[in-house]
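Late entry, written up from scratch paper. The run itself happened at the end of the previous shift, but nothing got recorded in the book at the time, so transcribing now.
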Amino acid sequence: MLATQRKLFVVAGEPSGDQLGGAFLSELKKTVSFEARGVGGPDMRAAGLVSLFDMSDLSVMGIVDVVGAIPRLYLRLDRVVRAALAWQPDAVVLIDNKVFSQMVAKRLKRAGYRGAIFLYVAPSVWAWKPDRARKIAPLFDEVLAVLPFEPVIMADLGGPLTSFVGHPAENLIDPDRRKPDTGLVTLLPGSRGGELKRHLPLFGEVAERLADHPRVTGFALPTLAHLKTRLDAEVANWGVPVRVVATPEDRQSVFDETLVALVGAGTVTLELAMMDVPMVCTYVPDWFMMRAYKRWGRPLIGLPNVILGEEVLPEIRPGPDHASRVAAAMKKILDDTEAQERQSAGFAKVRDQIVNGLPDSPRTSAAARIRARLVEQE
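Output as recorded:
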């Protein structure tokens, strides 16, 4: 244990960030006596954090959502910064929520705060706006990255010191998983309102095209509990029956029975790779996202592809005959043993990097990096 009790100020705005925060606080407790304040959800509160307000107040995504939430976000920003400055913690950990986190860090630095400021989850400088790496260098003493290649890229781009601390998807690895001979097509269109609105019509059309495949016994759509009623109503109008599931147990049962998943990009692509579940990735962007995607050279978006720098899982881009192209890619996975084996071999490489890191960025932990900074202050 460190000699004196420390003060940590931790802010998360999403359930995924709350899980990261809860995990590192729980691990840090083993070697550091601390008091934690900030903003978090049930996982962080269970690990001892006293939250200033409900974490959902910081949860926004997409340009339309952000614009509408600006007044509320500025009020919360002021409260977070004032609370941190009044308390003067030994370290501040800002989890994901990139724009809000950068605004908090900028205000703290401007006000003369001298403790260490961490950003937990690196911005995607490898895909969007690489110049951001250099811009955030003065704001953060260290970035805690969840993808193994990010420390090297951040260094090459002139960003802050960055350490690879692992990804929570690692907990899904099951070396004993057996792939079924027949089973489900699993649909993962996302959870945001805009994602669902854009993806559901496409996913429904693809499901109808796969309904007669001899290996397919049905369709399932794992989702969050608060979305189940809405999605039950949406899929009731489709040409094929779809089982919507929302509990962790039902979700895992569905993944165990999955032959191939259709995924609307996102972190779930990495989670499925950890479980060695075959998949096809696609997306239906809004006009703003499509313009940005084209401007930045149509980069890979499936995380296993990004990690390996090659397309190990098919990414079907929007355009003419979208549903037929997606269905064809999924049928190839269902029918072509070699295609299945190539994808599985690629996922094995991804799992190795997530577990061990890379030679230039070996795996450490968020708690270890934060503790190291606290030791430096003694």
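The longest helix spans residues 63-87.
(Scratch paper discarded after transcription.)
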